[in-house]
Design brief:
Blueprint (H helix, E strand, L loop, with lengths): L9 H13 L4 H49 L1
């Protein structure tokens, strides 16, 4: 486990202390879980962004292939 020195804004610190106490978790556990959750959210956003970018790169080719398939169906 790594040690970390962290500066928090006063209002964020107070809210964190209040909520951690309400859910019966120590500060370290609460912050670890919060960061783990936030990392998952950010990974999903990054993946969505990458998929969107790659989808745009192949969209015209996909449309071209679809048009070819439709032409083949019309011929058959």
């Amino acid at each position: 486990m790594k040690n970390l020195s962290l500066k928090l804004e006063d209002d964020i610190f107070q809210e964190t202390e209040h909520i951690a106490a309400k859910v019966h978790k120590n500060r370290n556990r609460y912050i670890n879980e919060a960061l783990e959750f936030y990392n998952k959210v950010q990974k999903r956003r990054l993946l969505a962004s990458q998929l969107d970018k790659e989808s745009k790169l192949v969209s015209s080719e996909s449309l071209s292939v679809l048009t070819e398939f439709e032409a083949l169906e019309d011929e058959g």
